[in-house]
Predict the 3D structure of the following.
Amino acid sequence: MNEVVDFINVNRDRYVEELKQYLAIPSVSALPQHAADVRRAAEWTADALRAAGVPHARLVETPGNPVVYGEWLGAPGRPTVLFYGHYDVQPVDPLDLWLTPPFEATVRDGEIYARGAADDKGQVFMHIKAVEAHMKKAGALPVNMKFFIEGEEEVGSAHLDECIRANKELLAADVVVISDSTMFDRGIPSICYGLRGLAYFQIDVRGTKTDLHSGSFGGAVANPAFALAQILAQMKDRGGRVKIPGFYDDVRPLGEQERAEWRKLPFNETRYRKELGAPRLSGEKGYSTLERVWARPTFEVNGLLSGFTGEGAKTVLPAVAMAKVSMRLVPDQRPDRIAELFEAYLKKVCPATVALTVTRMHGGKPWMTEFDNKYVRAAGRAIQTGFGQAPVFTREGGSIPVVSTFQEELGLPSVLFGVGLPDENAHAPNEKLDLGNFHNGIIASACLYQEIAAV
Amino acid sequence: MNEVVDFINVNRDRYVEELKQYLAIPSVSALPQHAADVRRAAEWTADALRAAGVPHARLVETPGNPVVYGEWLGAPGRPTVLFYGHYDVQPVDPLDLWLTPPFEATVRDGEIYARGAADDKGQVFMHIKAVEAHMKKAGALPVNMKFFIEGEEEVGSAHLDECIRANKELLAADVVVISDSTMFDRGIPSICYGLRGLAYFQIDVRGTKTDLHSGSFGGAVANPAFALAQILAQMKDRGGRVKIPGFYDDVRPLGEQERAEWRKLPFNETRYRKELGAPRLSGEKGYSTLERVWARPTFEVNGLLSGFTGEGAKTVLPAVAMAKVSMRLVPDQRPDRIAELFEAYLKKVCPATVALTVTRMHGGKPWMTEFDNKYVRAAGRAIQTGFGQAPVFTREGGSIPVVSTFQEELGLPSVLFGVGLPDENAHAPNEKLDLGNFHNGIIASACLYQEIAAV
């Protein structure tokens, strides 16, 4: 391994220059005008894999954007790693808040600024370069590897599950490795062993056929915006607990050991609150902030729209009111079951004076692996080598639904080893990646394959 | 009077043709691009007054659109009528729902379709033609008359109160006559003796500095859209009563006689509900629909906006949430007092986890006159002549704040005699005016001056 690590150290600057080319392709999957760019990014990814020593890397077509697939299977008897990532990126709006153009990667103070730097091109490229180092110095990888890099992650991965189900044999492996998450904090490398799931809905409430004059009709018919407020207000109690009957039935309780581990993490509540600009932190009674975000389900209102919302005053009695709401789920809650419970409760609390429609938008299962899983431990050792310190073990509040799909469809555990930082503006202007973490991440990735070979 | 009425009958068609010219001027006060049209409508109104026999009718400048002022004071010893109306109109959007162009007045089935037909050019013109008939046949009016016709009614009459206060002597009179309201129903001429007032607010709730990812942060901080729902839900109880402490303190109770009169009105709840398209009617417990709309105060949500409101799903934890809310007020509630009570209650019910801002948008006092007021009775007799039947006496749920200003600043009672119909689309596409009511209204107006001369 020393030769591989030396090679990586020698090539540090070249990696950054190559990454800049990757980041120059505006592969914004949400915007139709970037369709050709998205395809170009897929081809660039396949080219980079081939150049790294993964022959025949190719595009697998889907009804949407292609998946980049490549494999190197020259280590019979050794484990097979399935690497998952994505080459598409978020839109860049609002463009005027970017200090440098989002698709002209710029290095400032040891960080590279560009859309996709952290999420996820930088972290995908890190693994491609780790593979390249093994191939150049050893002529082989210590494990078998399959690359599965999609182009629709930022738009909900609509065709991914189907693609996985249709290619079960092709994707057969021992473990999934994903680098699309963040470290706990600067200088604290992390392995994520749990993700929350999601159940997302739109609620539409109608009071009357058309908007009415609030003077001429106010008082005679229900106001749908008020009815919506009444409905939403009944979703959580004063202690922050979700009131949907049965909501907590399948929630796996937090273990005492896990809580004790998290209490040791260097988490500063005051700094966190100040950075968010919140008057105070607030959540479910009886849980710490990390516990609330990582291990407890939530009910959130994501959007509200009704009536007149412009400047000034308009005395309208709205005909309709709309809310987008979602619940983050934790093991062992299931999105479908939660949707049933939610819809039943909605029907119960909705006043009979308005008409209610609920639409299921999308859902994703929560995921958790044991943090003494052998692959997770292998990743811990690799990070120790790459970053010079042992990682902390964390969960995340967000969702990566494909992790559940890999578990359910392919029976595979996942190792989530991310080198982003929480303040790297993944979906915001001035996205960036710390180049120190990028470099250490290449070393850690190279070591990770070695460690997995030995489990 | 017979000669005057005959003259009006003979000239029926000419009035419609002249009205078409008035309606052709797109005097939309809300849209800056129509500023020249608004001024043109003011000049047209002054011209029409002069042509009718009100010499020296002129524009009185304000910081906004001019007021048209004209007077005929040739009846010393007789009462002076101050006529109030407006020459500006509502915007026409959505234009594609109009069956004929909004500024090319078109007659179909005895109704004239155009923006401003009912609100309020048609009803202003009705009085101008009544004056003309008196002047042509008698060479004089039976009363002294002052015309005060504004151009900012559809945008909140921002400069009107100041203009009235600055011209108290000019506007001195005995009674105000306003034709800017509707009849109770087709075939049921009405006099309105009460209006609700208004207190309108914007509520802004902030949870954090910026929008956040609902996965990464959901559960740790308050959701401002949920907090807003909690706040709003506490404004009314299950029985439809407003929960703001002190809100009902100054409400004048409905008299038994008044309730008995209203029960006699031909009001069909089922038809009303079906026309509105409401699952059921709903309002304050213990009151009928007419009582709820005419004589009881309300709390309404006029608008809601927060977070993501587009197609699909976005897992945002919004930074802010906004509501427009308003209360309709009844005698003897005062908008300023209600604002104080509301703001105090808001502070009490707002969670400490969010920052709250309340903005007072605008207010108007409720108004009521006795329905045995001598001018109201005079109007009753005039309507009997014009429409061949006695009017019913009604209140309205809406607000015409200038009525209170006339009472408070000039000490004047108002007579609200409107010939619109409830389904004439005053602020909607395909606004229209029934030409039978228009014609009978000219006769009734001419008779009204005669009746007032005799009180």
